[in-house]
């Protein structure tokens, strides 16, 4: 069984890239095909891996401004020569699901989400795009064409794997396909339980509008509670302008600092709808409870009343009421951490390897 991996693009270090790294650990001799690869922005671990890029990599500004070449991406994905592989595993939230494999090859797609800017967030994507009015007026026509291609590309997948029940529902709605849920890998074992907890709440990640950090900032302004926010992103300056004196922005932090924050916070605040949501699991791996909006991947990872607590509306008043009644002493750090270990990267690797082997065995019986 000769295996290849395909990933949308290597231009940032996020949850999707953690999935790719775990797959590379399982299939150590398999090459990874990707549209573009920016060595300066991603983990150095990829420098020791076999990375094969598309023709977009060679375009002027093809790496630095890869978003400019959106209309070329379907063709770039289809242009990969995968004819020598028996199994192709795509790690997709956009174009890698659209690869073309040989007729007797098995294509397994680990879907992080159906493409956000084509389906769930297309209207907000255009509103929040920092481009000229002319581009924003013509872009819907481009997205309509890409949406048609994306729907057809989903038909090329033999087995869909969703990273949460939330994404499983989206795959069913937009692609009309069934899927198997395999939760993504989280490095839970690098976190420990501490006895001495700080006097602050924590939130963070990539600071983008859909993650609703504005809701958290507004709530903590009103309550006057201490909040620390880590991470960077396009919403950083706007959030900073909103914030009162009890809110501290930490910007980009190293892994050691992040671990300390998770281990010493009162609780982690998770106000958004995520496909899965790695940061809440990291907080729980440190034994800290999570206060989360009760939608999305949080429903797969948080046990209400045991590892965290949910609030029901994305309004500052609702989050404020939850915080006022929140009692961290009611939660047992050992129970929280033990639950988080169910999402460890070793569990993901085993589950994916088992799924691939069983799917390959079943696929061969159909040939």
TrEMBL record:
One of its GO terms (molecular function) is glycosyltransferase activity. Pfam families: Glyco_transf_4, Glycos_transf_1. Residues 52-185 form the Glycosyltransferase subfamily 4-like N-terminal domain. Transmembrane segments: none annotated. InterPro entries: Glyco_trans_1, Glyco_trans_4-like_N. Residues 198-339 form the Glycosyl transferase family domain. PANTHER family: GLYCOSYLTRANSFERASE (PTHR12526:SF584). This is Uncharacterized protein. It comes from Candidatus Falkowbacteria bacterium RIFOXYC2_FULL_36_12.
């Amino acid at each position: 069984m000769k295996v290849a991996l395909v990933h949308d693009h290597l231009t940032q270090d996020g949850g999707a890239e953690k999935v790719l790294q775990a797959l590379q650990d399982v299939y150590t001799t398999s090459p990874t095909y990707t549209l573009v690869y920016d060595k300066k922005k991603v983990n150095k671990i990829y420098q020791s891996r076999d990375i094969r890029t598309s023709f977009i990599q060679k375009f002027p500004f093809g790496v630095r401004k890869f978003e400019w070449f959106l209309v070329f991406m379907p063709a770039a994905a289809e242009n990969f020569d995968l004819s020598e592989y028996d199994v192709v595993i795509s790690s997709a939230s956009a174009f890698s699901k659209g690869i073309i494999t040989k007729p007797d090859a098995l294509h397994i797609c680990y879907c992080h989400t159906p493409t956000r800017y084509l389906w769930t967030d297309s209207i907000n994507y255009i509103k929040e795009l920092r481009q000229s009015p002319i581009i924003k007026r013509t872009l819907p026509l481009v997205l309509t064409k890409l949406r048609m291609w994306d729907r057809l590309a989903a038909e090329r997948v033999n087995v869909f794997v969703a990273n949460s029940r939330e994404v499983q529902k989206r795959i069913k709605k937009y692609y009309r396909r069934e899927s198997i849920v395999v939760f993504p890998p989280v490095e839970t074992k690098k976190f420990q339980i501490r006895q001495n907890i700080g006097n602050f709440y924590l939130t963070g990640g990539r600071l983008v509008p859909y993650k609703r950090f504005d809701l958290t900032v507004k709530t903590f302004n009103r309550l006057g509670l201490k909040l620390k926010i880590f991470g960077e992103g396009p919403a950083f300056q706007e959030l900073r302008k909103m914030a009162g004196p009890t809110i501290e922005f930490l910007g980009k932090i190293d892994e050691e600092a992040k671990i300390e924050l998770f281990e010493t916070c009162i609780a982690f605040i998770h106000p958004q709808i995520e496909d899965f949501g790695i940061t809440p699991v990291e907080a729980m791996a440190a034994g800290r409870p999570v206060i989360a909006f009760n939608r999305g991947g949080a429903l797969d990872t948080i046990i209400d009343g045991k590892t965290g607590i949910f609030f029901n509306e994305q309004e500052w008043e609702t989050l404020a009421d939850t915080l006022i009644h929140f009692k961290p002493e009611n939660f047992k750090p050992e129970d929280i951490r033990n639950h988080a270990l169910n999402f460890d990267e070793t569990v993901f690797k085993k589950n994916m390897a088992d799924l691939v082997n069983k799917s390959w065995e079943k696929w061969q019986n159909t040939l």
